Amino acid sequence: MRYLLCLALLLSLTSRMFADDDPKPKPNTLTPKEAADGWLLLFDGDSTFGWKALDDSKWSVVEGMLSPQGDKPVRLVSTTAFADYDLSLEFRVKQDTKADVIVGCDADGGGAAGKQVNAIPLVGNGWATLTAQVRGGDLARFATRSASRSGSTEFGPGSGDPAAKKAASGYLTLSGNNFIVRNVKLKPINTKAIFNGKDLTGWKVFEGPGKKSEFGVTKEGWISLKNGPGDLQTKDAWTDFLVQIDCISNGKQLNSGVFFRCIPNEYQNGYEAQIHNGFTEKPEKEYTIEEYDPATNELKNKTKIKATATDYGTGAIYRRVPARREVAKDREWFKMTVVAQGRHLATWVNGVQVVDWTDNRPLKDNARNGCRLEKGPISLQGHDPTTDLNFRNIEIAELPPLVKGEKK
Prior knowledge:
Helix content: under 10%
Shape: globular
Largest sheet: 8 strands, antiparallel
Structural class: mainly beta
């Protein structure tokens, strides 16, 4: 009953909010340009996927808006940590509400040791927009804008300036009560190109018996991958990172993948972010998901689920968890984002998160057999003789260690 009353109040409040609003594009979506530029949706408008509720809190998602239930201040923490990014969201608060967006948090939503400026207060009348710049896990600048007020704040050395503190990766927290958010978007910055658009400098083809893939660079400046099997690997290696890559599948439901944390100089021994645009209208394919104890790393349970992905789906972590929805289309460019931070792996396709998974398996040298935390190259998979894909705009950012929270 309390939940139903909360939903009724939220709907009543939001209906009044929209009464004076001009017609706008559907909230919680990205424009094609935003998706191409690498923006990520942190709230999909349908669920709290990619977030963790603390304080035994309950959160409502109604008509594309996210709000905490009840009058007690609570917290919702992102499950993925970032370091350098621009943030944007829309919010609305009741008068005298105490609500904040906190960046650079630890996994429990706590503040980082020595950081005092990472909480952004949510204030304003009507719908307001918050934008923020986070550098090295520290808040460098934020601005709010609403119909009644606007302003910005910058932090210099000794506060939010990344030059003043050691960079760290941190989570985002929504904290407080009596507030609503939508259009929560994040754009990673300070990534570096690992493909120059001219030749395969910095990459190497895995040479071995039976490897048939043909790798080259087109006149448009794209990597061309045809035939298979085969493997194109970077010469550099990474452990914790964010990578973004544009892909196009030049045929129907072709199979490929982006491997990472691979064992150097071995054939496709790593995690695989799947590329396969095969989906059904209703969940039909059955997958077995293994659940491991995070403390003992022992197998606890095997759960069977049904998904629309016919072969894990684009953005899936292959053989571990299928993509939860179809985003990419054959013969159309799409951008895939992979974030690996310790045991946690997350993927986005065209800015929509499709995987949020923590590898609690026992530690192993090979990700095929267990959790691999060692650095390894990125590789592009030639799967079989039908393989025909192009790749461009491959950029990566190494992630600093996770923030250490205040001692309690």
